[in-house]
Each structure stands twice: as structure tokens, then as C-alpha cells.
Specification:
With about 425 residues, the protein is of the alpha/beta class. Helices cover about 45% and strands about 15% of the residues.
Length: about 425
Amino acid sequence: MKKLSFFHTPFFEIIKRMKKKSSLSNEELVSIIRINRNWGNSKLSIQGGKNMKNKILSLLMVATMAVGMLAGCGSKTNAPADNQVKEETPATEATAEPATEEAAGPEIPTELEHIKVAYMPNYASLATIVAAEGTGAFEKYGFDVELVEFADGPTIISAMESGSIDYAYIGTGAHKLCVQGRADVICFAQLSNADAVIGNTDMGVNTVEDLKGKKVAYSSGTSSEEILKATLGKANLTMDDIEAVEMDASAITTAMVSGKVDACATWSPNTLTIYNELGDKAVELGANKDFTDTDVSVSSFIAMPDKVKNDRDQVIRFVEAMYAGSDFRNTDFDQNCQYAADLTGLSIDSMTGSKLDADWVDAATIHELANNGEMLKYYEIQQKNFLESGAIEEEVPVENYVHFDIMNEAYDAYIK
């Protein structure tokens, strides 16, 4: 027999009706859900204060009695008369109870699913993910998460294509691979202000114009490359006008601080380290905030196209966890920075110093942006800049790789 989800049982329907007619809070409803799922478990516990526990226990007793009464009434009503032939209809998927407007979203698995989530060691990449992990949101939505660190987005997508990563955060540069069909955007993360081009005045770099002929470190295919090209454009320069030195993101900081390069394009917290180490010798030549009228630095959560197509319920649950993380991140910034510092081993100061690295949005704002055309505009501008820089060869509809439908479906499930 197929086991019914808790959310399709009479017990849950009664609890929902009682919630509407009483002062039952969302927190109390979640506790009841946990109790029902673990009924018979010796480790059963109710979270909350004494008053909350008494209220929940009372409601459970009433709901249990009501379910029993409904079962009794159902037996009496459906019993066939002695002179009638009882017709039995085999239980099939077609005869399952239709979904209602109050459907609770994808069914949460009884056993946690192990997934691997990729991130980069900076607060912008980690902020939502560590919030979901630290607050238990991943577990709530049925996941046992293994976090895996990478240096940049293109490397992450290569790992996803090999099957070693399930979900990931990427910065703006790696989105060109999404345009090319190699990955799908399943949730908007934020508009970033974490990228910057920094010059070393001791090396003769005081302005963007001074970059001509200079050694400039950058990381190809990432937001580092994008911010460098945009900054050069302010002085009508291109990559051909500089001695571009391609490096792994982690090596850029060392090269800049040691004087092996004259300037660099990188992101937080590397930027903070460079400013601290070089002091007055470090000069900002360009940053995301300088190009908001013509460029946007969009960050997103992604999955492989096959996963989006074949495992939609899991994808929606992951996005729900991201919504929960976004809401906590905006509620308790200090605690979230501590989560990120604990995971990366970086200083708490490097995390708290990243507060202005992005326009942090909560779940409701993400939903609004997905439906008022603003988010579509972000990705259209991003793709236009890829075209102009030669990063992609042809324009494609944003909807080909950005799943606004998944963001909406996940939000509907999240707020119920």
C-alpha cells in the first residue's frame, strides 16, 4: 500500500481548520506536524514553552477524537445495504484525492536525501546557504546537505556536469554557461556589489587610464573578468590594452599583495584583504555600483537541466530552503556571519565586512521581482553584456534557462 503523505490525511485537514478558527500560530502548527510524523517515536518532543506545549497537546487530543468520529461516520455512511451488491474500485493514481488550493507543496521524504551543494568562500556565496543549514531549513525540507567549496562558478558547473554536485551558487560571470544551456537558474540570489578592480599606486596605477600596458590579474569566466572589462570600458580600453594575467581566484590576492601584478580584478573577501594589506597604496578603479545603469551583477542558485526536468519536486524543496535562508539572513545578520565564518575558517570580521557586498533580498521580494518584470530585466541586461563582450555568440530567451515558474511554485509552497 502506498503510504499517504501527512499533508493528505484527515488529521492535517482538521488541524488546518482549527488553525483558521483559533490562535494557533505557524510555529505551533509546525510542532504538530513534527509530532504526527514521529508518532510512536520514543524520542518525540515538543518544542516551545509550557503554554505552547499544553495548547498543542490539547489540540492534538481534540483532533484525534475528531478523526475517530469521522472514521466512524464514514463507515456507517458507506456501508452497502444487505440487498445491494457492493462495487469495489481498485485504488489507482487516477482515483487519488485531487489537490486543493491548500496543498502543502512537494511531499517531504520520510528519510533525508543526501545532496551536495557547491559554494565559494565568500559571504555573498555563503549567506543564504549557511542560513538554511544553520537554522535547520535544509533538514525541514528533507535534505542532508554536504557543502563543497570551489574557487569559481565555471569549475562548479563542470563538477555538476560530472554528477558530483547537485545544486550551487554562482556569480554573474558563470551565467554565460547557463545561457549556453549547460545549467539552469532555479532561484535568484541577489544583485552583487562584491566585485572590484584595484590598482597599486606604488606600481604607477592611480586611474583606469593607468592600466594600459600594466599587469592585471583576473579569473577568466567569472565576475572578475566581467568587472575588469566594464572598468576598462570607462577609459575606452579593452583586454588587448593590458597585460592580462589569468589566475585562480585564490592566487590573485597573493599576487597583488606581493607586488607581482600592478592591479587586479577580484571579489570580497579578497578585496578586503588587499585593502587591509596595501593600505593607502590600494585604489579602487571600478566596482559593481559604478555600472548599475548599464550592467548588473546577478547571482543565482542553479541545477542541471536534467534535474530540473526529472526531479522537479526536489528542486522546489531546495528553493523553499533557500527562501527560508534568505529570510533568516536578513533577520539576523550577525549570527549568519558567524555561521559563514565557522564554515570557512575565515575571520568573523571578513564576514561582517561584507554587509554592503549585495542588495540582500528576502523571499517575498524575490517573488515580487519574479512577477513584476524586474528580475527578467536583470537577466536580459546580463545576457546583453555577454553578447557585447563576446562571451556568448547568440541571444536566447531568458525563460530558456531561468525558471520563474519554479520560483513561484516554491514560494507558494513556502508561505503555506
